[in-house]
Design brief:
3-stranded antiparallel sheet; binds adenosine-5'-diphosphate; Rossmann fold; 14 helices; Molybdenum Cofactor Biosythetic Enzyme, Chain A; globular; single chain
Amino acid sequence: MSALVLGCIADDFTGATDLANNLVRAGMRVVQTIGTPNAALDAGVYADVDAVVVALKSRTIAPEQAVAQSLEALQWLQAQGAQQIYFKYCSTFDSTPAGNIGPVTEALMDALATDFTIATPAFPDNQRSVFKGHLFVGDVLLNESGMQNHPLTPMTDANLVRVLQAQVARRVGLIDYRCVAQGDAAIRSRIAQLRSEGVAIAVVDALSNDDLLTLGRALKGMPLVTAGSGVAIGLPANFCIAPSIAASHLPKAAGHQAVLSGSCSLATNRQVQAFINAGHSALSIDPSRIAAGDDVVAQALAWAKPQLQLHKGPLLIYSTADPDAVKSIQGRLGVQAAGEMVERTLAAIARGLVQLGVRQLVVAGGETSGACVQALNIQQLQIGPQIDPGVPWCYALSDVAAAGTSGLHLTLKSGNFGSDDFFSKAFTVLA
Ligand code: ADP
């Protein structure tokens, strides 16, 4: 672990993977941990890691808890030797006047004894740009993007200087696009000027990847960076790390292949259909049978076992359904109860599949992925090659597998990510 240079704290699980994916593409060797580990990374398995991303679930919890969890992650990252800390939040700046972006930023600044940091969710490749401190999602302002109706973190103001100022005691300022366009020396001068004026946090404009790369150079040596995942593309070069295929190298894949899908998003519905149309084996899980008390897990594993033994290629087990079917079961059981019931079932099937020798597993659905990772008792993921934007293959150890064969290739796809042929393509990328 002596190589670790960048320590990252992400406020949710799929956001952590998004950040890790950007760092890998910029040349870093990255491990993502599920929560703050209670021991050092296993040097035998994860030698020569450049960055660690600690995935928290702190975006919408109480600010005091988010602060406590983030400080715990910081301490662990510092103990591993991290030279620079990156606090990663959502590219739509998901937060409320109570937090958690502001309070966590200030707590990290206090702990690092630093008087200045930046804040920008800009990620032009993903349609997020910041202009004069205002966040645009595609062509519209944040507060017209649909985010104004978010159930937990409604974003009703696109002016990030104002949004962040409402969350912090320190003064918030702006480094605008004209300054960024003049280069990293101009950004550094602007930072010195803001500092002298008593500004502690600067929102930074960025309209293109070039802006992010310029900003990255100006952030060399800054103890704390706060951003979406976009800024990550400009940081590895500060540590003399250049993009390379080697960064995404994972151990060789072996074992059976399976897809588990609990996402009901439009993209996943298309992916399930495309996989079936391509002639692969698929089994649909009916939530009403789970609710009726059938042993759906045993039935699914009994269906899968002979096919896996015959090495018939990837198979799919899915609860993915169209909106009408989902609404119908939710109407009977309640939204929360239906979701948790299906998640528990798919997670138990994931365990069973790994016990049957599956070592290449695609999981579709953010919550579903969380449930499966937990059921497989996975604590750390090494990040590998990208399948589609934001979705890399990962490698993890699971003690659910037979001793000596605990290595598992895993990809965790959040609902709307990935092309229609994602489920087949994933295995081709790994091969
Ligand atoms: P996404 O990333 O698309 O949002 P998630 O896994 O996060 O996917 O969320 C999907 C939710 O829907 C999960 O709680 C899952 O258990 C639930 N679910 C899956 N299939 C069904 C179904 N057929 N009926 C009702 N709920 C379902």
